[in-house]
Amino acid sequence: MGFTDKQEALVRDSWEFMKQDIPQLSLRFFSLILEIAPVAKNMFSFLKDSDELPENNPKLRAHAVKVFKMTCESAIQLREKGEVVVGETTLKYLGSIHLQKRVADPHFEVVKEALLRTVKEATGNKWKDEMKEAWSEAYDQLASAIKAEMHAEAAA
């Protein structure tokens, strides 16, 4: 399924709204990942031996903002480019680091759930099934691009 004009508009409009609060939403996004899958904490070197709350961890804050922005911005470009657009070196790096950390399909699903919950909370009563479907499609395409790089890296 391609990314439709309507899906692009839904993602773009909600992203424009969410951009006003990226630091807070990014922390919420990562907090949800850790809430859904507490063992994910061990996948991040800056969280492994820490009992700090996510909002008190500057490395997590920086990482959360980077991941959240990249996820959302790649979704915005999906319709225009017809594919996930992340710099080639960035995509290769993402594939490599995800392979190194032994990220598997269930991990991608946790991140997807956290993303959808974050967008739902941020957009409030604007959240509808079609917005959920739009963000799901956008995320699935990003996850597929990362997985393809993981497979390429593993085969090399």
In short:
With 156 residues, the chain is mainly alpha-helical.
CATH homologous superfamily, by name? Globins
Number of domains: 1
Q: Sheet with the most strands?
A: none
Overall mean pLDDT stands at 83
SSE order in H/E notation? HHHHHH
Q: What's the helix count?
A: 6
- Corresponding CATH architecture: Orthogonal Bundle
List keywords for this structure.
single chain; mainly alpha; Globin-like; 6 helices; globular; oxidoreductase activity; iron; Globin-like_sf
Characterize the structure shown:
With 156 residues, this protein is mainly alpha-helical. It has one domain: Globin-like, CATH 1.10.490.10. Helices cover 72% and strands 0% of the residues. The chain is built from 6 helices and no strands. The chain has helices spanning 5-18, 22-36, 58-81, 88-100, 105-123, 129-155. α1 (5-18) runs antiparallel to α3 (58-81) and α1 (5-18) packs across α6 (129-155). The protein is globular. The chain starts with a helix and ends with a helix. The model has no long low-confidence stretch (mean pLDDT 83). It comes from Solanum lycopersicum (Tomato). This is Anaerobic nitrite reductase HB2. Homodimer. Its cofactor is heme b.
Structural topology:
Layout: H1 5-18, H2 22-36, H3 58-81, H4 88-100, H5 105-123, H6 129-155
Helix pairs in contact: 1-3, 1-6, 2-3, 2-5, 3-6, 4-6, 5-6
